[in-house]
Amino acid sequence: MKRAIAWRIGLGIVGPALIVFVWWRVSRRYTPYQFPGPAEVMAAWREILADGSLATHVKISLLRFFAAYLLALVTALPLGFSLGWWTRGLDLFDPVIQILRPISPIAWFPLAVLWFGVGNAPAIFIITLSAFFPILLSTVSAVRAIPPAYLRVAANFGAKRLLLLRAVLLPAAFPTIVVGLRIATGAAWIHLVAGEMLGAQSGLGFLIVDSRNFLRTDLIVAGMLTVGILGLVIDRLVAWAERRVRFAWGLGQ
């Protein structure tokens, strides 16, 4: 067990180290302005860490992300359960869902600015939209895949609707729903940067755009790497929460 953990940690270190080495080698073929190397990017990171701007942008981006993700969660989950349970409702709304789902959230940029102006609102709208459909569709699929025998047994024991939802539907549907939750997390985080380019004056997306305006390619890469590292942390937190819920419902760790 310990050896397996050591191997995982070792491989987790070797992979990024190899990428950094290749990055350093390639960057030597270009000027720092064209393709900044690890040293230039680290210097840029220290610069925005020292003046506090990185912490400010990260805080604002995380607040926008969690607000938008929570909004997608509280709208998509109940709707997904309703449509998964109510077949006629799914038949009624499925064409609309399938028309809207393939439209990229980026295509909504002009309307988002027209409806909400600039600032937090259009960014939150774009992020919410990117997370909404993965959660909705995975929830619908999860509910429709629940074996009818589970529901009949619960009915025979006189389970009321709230108990049926808490003790049968949620545990049975959770393994499929969580797939949509993780996909939605990645999609929402990806579109966070795009959403913050809609006239926002703060956040990691703004940091990248503002650095481009000042021709600071080192800050651009530093901002991109910050987005990637935070995305990894968020994904690991979602995976940890998934394991906790599985354990609580007796579905294994």
In terms of topology, how is this protein built?
Blueprint: H1 2-27, H2 38-50, H3 53-85, H4 87-100, H5 109-116, H6 120-144, H7 148-156, H8 161-195, H9 204-213, H10 217-248
What features would you describe in this structure?
This protein has 253 residues and is an all-alpha fold. The chain has two domains: 1-30; 34-248, MetI-like (MetI-like fold, Orthogonal Bundle). The chain is 81% helix and 0% strand. It contains ten helices and no strands. The protein has helices spanning 2-27, 38-50, 53-85, 87-100, 109-116, 120-144, 148-156, 161-195, 204-213, 217-248. The longest helix is centred in the C-terminal third of the chain and has 35 residues, at 161-195. The radius of gyration is 22 Å and the shape is globular.
User: What CATH architecture label of the largest domain applies?
Assistant: Orthogonal Bundle
CATH superfamily grouping of the largest domain: MetI-like
CATH topology of the largest domain: MetI-like fold
* Helix content, binned percent: over 70%
Radius of gyration: 22 Å
Sum up the overall morphology in one term.
globular
Based on DSSP secondary structure assignment, what is the total number of beta strands?
Answer: 0
Defining key terms:
253 residues; mainly alpha; MetI-like fold; 2 domains; 10 helices; 0% strand; globular
Give a quick summary of the entry.
The chain contains ten helices and no strands. It has 253 residues and is an all-alpha fold.
